[in-house]
Amino acid sequence: KIAREWALVRANNACEKWGEAKNLGVHHIKPYKQCKDDVEANSPKNLIILCDSCHMVIEQTGKIIKEVIKK
To answer: Which residues pair with 27 in a beta bridge?
Structure first.
């Protein structure tokens, strides 16, 4: 829960792709099941904030996060 809150603060409570401030969720860059433990899965560098629309696109298309988020 703390990692989620940290990620939200880092993202200014907005989607890291479009800047949308509604319907936000945390996405694991490296899939949770592929991480060795909760610490790796929930490290700040493995989390990005996305709106539901962006999250759905990533989950359905499997696009690499670096191609999807703006940095």
So the answer is: 48
